[in-house]
Structure formats: C-alpha cells, structure tokens
Amino acid sequence: MSFPPRNRIxxxxxxxSPVSLAALSATAVEINNAxxxxxxxxxxxxxxxxxxxxxxxxxxxxxxLDATLAVxxxxxxxxxxxxxxxxxxxxxxxxxxxxxxxxxxxxxxxxGSDTDAAGNYxxxxxxxxxxxxxxxxxxxxxxxxxxxxxxVATDAWLLEGxxxxxxxxxxxxxxxxx
Length: 178
Fold this sequence. Notes:
The chain is mainly β.
C-alpha cells in the first residue's frame, strides 16, 4: 500500500472518477454528526432541571427522563439545525422556551390526542408563541410525547409534534413569555 506525499491532498475513487478532498468544507465534528449513528439518542437524566440545547443535541433525539426539565433553545439564526425532545417519563412541569423570548417564536403545529375522550386537537403556532409547557395531563407531556423544532430563519423555529392530553379540560401547550 502506498500513501500520497505529505503535502498532497488525498483523492478517493467514486464511480471510477477521482474525487478530491481538497474541496471538502465540512469539519470533523460535522462529518461525525452526520455519520455517527451511535449518538443519535441523547439521554437527559432525572434531576437535570435545566438544559440549554447545543452542539451535542443537534439533529438528535433528546430522551427526557426529568419530569420538571426546563429546556432553552439556542438563538434561531437559520442554521437548519433540528432538535427533537421525546418524553421518556411523564412531565409534571416541563417547558421548552426560545432563547430570545422578545423576538423569536414557533411556526407550525402540535397535534394533540385526547386519551380519556374521543377528540383530537391541532394547536397552531403563529410565531407569537415562544414557550411550550407540559403538565402531564391537559397540556400534554405524557410518555413518548415529542416535539421537534428546526431553526429555519432568524428568530423563527419550525414546530411539529405529537402529544397526548387528558383531564377533560385540554388546552394548548403554546404560550408567550414576552
């Protein structure tokens, strides 16, 4: 086996055509994030209490085992980064809030299903909402409820999710702190 001289950029063969790595602009961290499936699930332990999402949570599923977790999203700047929060335990007072509550907001919807009566809800986020609150019953946050947010533009989060609600007085989990 021979190696190229140290001052040369290696090339790979793809479909019988050389591909130069000189044009590669991705960092090692970005390549690992895209390729390493062993880290797709990030467990958030009980008694964490507060969590600011960052690089270790990008494009991963955060399995929440803390019933009172307060999650803060990073600034929305249009990176395309997604964060999925999955309840691994029923919430009692959990929140997901944007970092910039004065300007940023959610756009999209959360689908809610009533578990103790026939009914479904579509909770619409119009950009004016910056907080999602779970209480384990009327606003959701039951086992395996999930929320996914994607940073689509400055101050804008695309929102999607599915929650289960109960208690006879189901209400939107969306609100505004501003």
